[in-house]
Design a protein that fits this description.
29 strands; alpha+beta; about 45% helix; 6-stranded antiparallel β-sheet
Length: about 850
């Protein structure tokens, strides 16, 4: 018997009436739904405005408290320095002024720090007029400090500075004599113009406002539609704000109608440690503008929906004719889907509303380590890390409350953490669609999950590399700028000391000259300390790529210990056990990154407060297998046994949010592996942790490089003819003065002049030439001299401050000429001169003879 067709008779009047009713109901439903969404959207926009004002207020609070905390630290340092100098019986004006300038430089937001004596006269600080000093005895803060010894730090109302003549806030602390009597006030001036500029950086819309008020709610700085005003007169306080402050609230959100009749949403916050209030407000018209556009769009969508539903009803009449064909096609598509799912590298899955897997593709075994059968038996929460599990549960609960057939996650990429069978955590991205029954019941979800752990790690490494490259470039530039003046400071101070010592017999009993000699020695020691600091900075800024060279391990450890000294001093004693070890093949920057990470981790493992009870031991030794061993041991909290296997995993960290990225040890592990070494760890909870890095030793020749003693200065009558070329005349003269020793030394500040003299036939036994000069660089001079006289070009020795361009680095790698790093080390300079003397002897001439 032939099957009777189930196709309806679409010409039936009853069916048409039913379709009309359904379309009308759908249109009404859509209109109601859109109206509800618009109401919710309006509430949401209002909430966003409140959150925006809270964020601005919090940002301003953190900014102002940060500045005021730094200012207070500077004031306390000056107070303590003043008390210490009074206790010693001598207040050296110049030294104390220098100390004030040093403290003020640490807070760039300040317009100056000044000190008033017990009479109120400003006697120390920038802009102080000694004959007729400004007097602040009538200032309320001065009288309060004078009469109340325990007043602590005070923040004044807006005032006009009597030194600067500009509106400012005065942040002050009391100065006392060793006996506790009032000795004056130290005053930090915070320019309100700078605060106003900071307010302009925050976006509160065209009619929004930002204000800063004092403890009495007096207006200090205001930024609004009419612009920025500093300490304006006649400012008013809204009743709502005044009531909240009277009620003891330190932060709150409220709505009020301000000047000009503009209604705004405000958030105010009182600074925790200072009597100041920050208030941020957004105008209703600003943040409801977007909602109005949404409303117009939604109404248009309702009209479009009505048109579409009418068209859909007509299309539905025709759709049933294709229903049977669609059923057959569906079966075929199901087979295609299964084949696709089983061959896909991404994980394809389906969940029921209880979050149990009802289908999972074979890729689950590669990604998570479970077979398909095992995965289907697992509770859903077992597959996720705790935070991701909580998020999935929340999404499930949200989906259960959705309108039937809604797909809120269709265009959303969900970022989740999955847990493998072995406990490792994967970073994953999932696309999700909800599955609904024809009746509108939620059946579960269908999704595709991709493992993006490696991609995330690579992105994080790239971001870190870019940041380090930027910092390195900046550090190298600073080092270069410091090295030039440091060169002539070191050279000239050393020269002056040598000249003074050469005539010691003539002034041995003259006390001022003895003191001058000691001052020169101290200046030379200080400048040499700056040279070492610059050298340490250059160690971590040198972009030497992947080129591995023999590197001494112990000097890099010493540099890293100096860099971390402030961080570790309050936590533990640092014990150095640096043995005699050979060089390793590495780069200083990458090796320094490993050591710095290990030292920082060791310091963070020990709480502050008891350095005498804890220690960090850093040691080097030769391992039994010949490798070089670096050990960093601490007496910190230790690492639990269940966490220890995962410490080198990317993004794994036990630190609080904001204290670590989880990449430090992962990067250390990667660097050590790339250098052919290994990193080991031992730890016990409550006893501490030991990291041990083992690296292959460089060849014996490379390990001993640089260990030979430098040659002495040339003996006998042979001396060199030396030319010093540097566009900085001070540097050139200082280097020439350092050479001395009977050599015939000339100075030139232009490379073109040198080129002309070479072309005219002049020759020198040694040419010390700056690498980077304007007009004609050392590289270009070498190329042109090479064309005139290759032998003279071989006698060029390049001086550099260390800020290499890529072209300069390639040039130095391609030529055999020696180089001297600024500031020039006397030992290295002697080696270059000795080589020139030996070359002159071999050619059978003195330095006064042209080559």
């Amino acid at each position: 018997m032939a099957r009777r067709s189930s196709r309806p008779t679409w010409s039936s009047a009853a069916v048409v009436r039913a379709l009309v009713v359904c379309v009308a109901l759908a249109d009404v439903f859509a209109a109601v739904l859109v109206a509800r969404v618009l109401v919710q959207s309006r509430a949401h926009h209002r909430e966003r405005a409140v959150v925006a004002t809270q964020n601005v207020a919090c940002g301003l609070e953190e900014y102002l408290e940060g500045i005021l905390d730094k200012i207070d630290l500077a004031l306390m340092a000056i107070r303590d320095e003043h008390a210490g100098r009074l206790a010693s019986g001598r207040l050296d004006r110049r030294a104390f002024e220098a100390f004030i300038v040093q403290q003020a430089a640490r807070v760039p937001e300040l317009s100056g720090i000044r000190v008033a004596d017990a009479r109120g006269d400003i006697v120390f600080g920038e802009g102080v007029d000694a004959p007729s000093p400004a007097n602040v005895a009538d200032r309320p803060y001065f009288m309060l400090h004078r009469d109340a010894p325990g007043a602590g730090v005070l923040v004044s109302s807006p005032i006009v500075g009597r030194v600067t003549g500009k509106p400012q806030l005065a942040i002050t602390r009391r100065l006392s004599t060793p006996g506790g009597r009032f000795a004056g006030v130290v005053i930090a001036s915070l320019a309100l113009d700078d605060v106003a500029l900071t307010f302009m950086a925050f976006d509160v819309g065209p009619r929004g406002v930002i204000t800063l008020r004092g403890a009495d709610l007096g207006l200090i700085v205001s930024r609004g539609p009419e612009g920025t005003q500093i300490a304006p007169a006649g400012g008013t306080v809204s009743p709502e704000l005044a009531e909240l402050v009277r009620a003891g609230r330190t932060s709150a959100a409220f709505s009020a109608v301000g000047v000009g009749g503009i209604e705004r949403t405000f958030t105010f916050r009182r600074l925790e440690r200072y009597p100041l209030y920050v208030i941020a407000g957004l105008a209703f018209d600003d943040y409801f503008g977007e909602w109005r556009r949404e409303a117009v769009g939604a109404i248009a969508l309702v009209a479009l929906f009505a048109a579409l539903t009418t068209a859909a009803a007509w299309a539905g009449l025709r759709a049933s004719r294709r229903r049977e064909a669609a059923v057959a096609a569906l079966a075929e598509e199901e087979n295609k889907f299964r084949l696709l799912a089983e061959s896909a590298t991404d994980l394809i899955w389906m969940l029921d509303p209880d979050l149990r897997l009802t289908y999972v593709s074979p890729a689950v075994e590669r990604l998570l380590g479970y077979t398909v059968e095992e995965a289907l038996e697992l509770p859903g929460e077992r597959l996720y890390a705790p935070e991701s599990s909580a998020r999935v549960m929340a999404l499930r609960d949200e989906a259960l409350r959705l309108q039937p057939r809604s797909q809120p996650y269709a265009d959303t990429l969900l970022e989740l953490e999955l847990v493998r069978r072995d406990g490792r955590v994967l970073q994953a991205e999932s696309t999700v669609k909800l599955r609904w029954s024809p009746e509108g019941r939620l059946l579960g979800a269908l999704g595709i999950t991709r493992d993006v752990t490696e991609r995330r790690e690579l992105q994080a490494r790239m971001r870190l590399t870019e940041r380090m490259a930027s910092v390195g470039t900046l550090a190298a530039g600073i080092a270069h700028e410091v090295n030039n003046p440091l060169t002539y400071v070191l050279s000239n101070v050393g020269f002056a000391l040598e000249q003074l010592q050469a005539t010691r017999s003539e002034w041995a009993h003259v006390a001022p000259l003895q003191e001058a000699e000691q001052a020169l020695r101290e200046a030379l020691a200080g400048a040499d300390r700056v040279r070492h600091i610059v050298r340490d900075v250059k160690t971590f800024s040198r972009p030497d790529g992947d080129r591995l060279v023999p590197v001494e391990l112990n000097p890099i450890i010493v540099a890293c210990l100096q860099m971390t000294a402030n961080q570790t001093a309050a936590r533990a004693r640092v014990v150095r056990r640096l043995g005699a070890v050979p060089c390793v093949r590495a780069t200083e920057a990458r090796l320094g990154q490993v050591i710095l990470n290990l030292l920082v981790n060791a310091g963070q493992a020990i709480p502050e407060g008891r350095p005498e009870a804890n220690e960090i031991v850093v040691g080097t030794a030769r391992a039994e297998d010949g490798r070089v061993e670096l050990e960093v041991r601490d007496t910190g909290a230790g690492i639990p046994a269940d966490v220890l296997p995962r410490i080198f995993d990317p993004f794994f960290t036990t630190k609080s949010v904001g204290e670590g990225t989880g990449l430090g040890l992962s990067i250390c592990h990667g660097i050590v592996k790339s250098l052919g070494g290994e990193i080991q760890v031992e730890s016990a909870v409550g006893q501490g942790t030991c990291f041990r890095v083992l690296l292959p030793a460089a060849s014996a020749g490379a390990a001993e490089a640089g260990s030979a003693a430098p040659p002495g200065r040339g003996d006998g009558p042979v001396r060199c003819r030396v030319l010093v070329v540097d566009d900085d005349a001070l540097v050139a003269r200082a280097v020439a003065r350092s050479i001395g020793g009977g050599h015939a030394v000339e100075v030139a500040t232009e490379a073109r002049e040198v080129l002309a003299r070479v072309a005219a036939g002049e020759r020198w036994d040694l040419v010390l030439c700056d690498l980077m000069m304007p007009d004609l660089s050392g590289m270009e001079l070498h190329a042109r001299v090479l064309g005139l006289d290759p032998a003279q070009a071989d006698r060029l020795v390049f001086m550099t401050g260390g800020a290499y361009t890529a072209r300069a680095r390639e040039f130095l790698d391609s030529v055999p000429n020696a180089r001297l790093e600024k500031p020039i080390d006397r030992r290295a300079l002697d080696e270059v001169l000795e080589a020139a003397v030996r070359r002159a002897r071999a050619l059978g001439r003195t330095g006064a003879t042209a080559a």
